[in-house]
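Supplementary notes for students who missed Thursday's class. We covered one full example, reproduced here. Read the sequence, then the structure, then the short commentary at the end.
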Amino acid sequence: MNCEVCELKELDVEHFEIREVLRCILHTVLFHRALGLVRPKDIDLELFEITYVQCGDPELEKKIDEKIDQFIDRVEKHPNKKNQICLSFYEVKNKQATWFTNKVERLHWEQWYINLNVAQHPKPHSGKSHHSKVVVGPADSASEERSVRRAALEASLREVLFQIIKFVNEKKDHVPSIPPNIDGVSFPYEITISSSSDSAFGMDMFKRMLQTGHPTMLS
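Structure (token representation):
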């Protein structure tokens, strides 16, 4: 089976931005792979002037939030590492059982790689400190830097959303027929997490090329 791969643009984020960024990307992909009746729900990001659409399915939202929690936990345990989430869509196929294999296997037909480079900064002091001093100059400079960085991230996140839309509009032939007795609002999917601390991370691209041919890169 042909598996299409989309490597999304890497994003430089800070820790407190992870949840919103991943929700936006994962829900956008899953909305475009939705099946049957969904209840589209517009979501306005709190940190950025961006609106995206969710499927309106509580179970799907719960699964995504659980995976994002796992991702954040991994970031905290492996600082200074590039971290990656892979959203894979698959078909379930029955095959003849042998001594070494199960009767059921998952055949991936589409994979989305989300790469985040999480900046590591000293944790800010709480506002309860009795020794804090007001230093106008550096504070103004830091605030300006944050504004510039936030605007750059917002622009990059918009690029990623357009990248997703472009991919789903151009890549259609590999999408399988709707499976019978489907459970949920989307094709069967799984979300996996890895970081550059994993031994497999460095070989990831090579493995993808062996399994699927050269990956699809859209800009």
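Commentary. Helices lie at 18-32, 58-77, 136-170, 204-212. Residues 123-136, 199-203, 205-219 have pLDDT under 50 and may be disordered. If anything here is unclear, bring it to office hours.
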